[in-house]
Amino acid sequence: MSKALVLFSAGQDSATCLAWALTRFQTVETIGFDYGQRHRVELDQRAPLRAALSAWRGDDRLGEDRLVDLRGYGALAESALTTDRAIEMAADGLPTTFVPGRNLVFLAVAAAHAYRRGADVLVGGMCETDYAGYPDCRAETIAAMESALTLGLGRPDLRIETPLMKLSKAETWTLAHDLGGDALVALIEEASHTCYEGDRSRRHPWGYGCGACPACELRAAGWRAWRQTRP
Question: Which residue of 5, 15, 112, 159 is most buried, as measured by CB atoms within 10 A?
Answer without folding.
Answer: 15
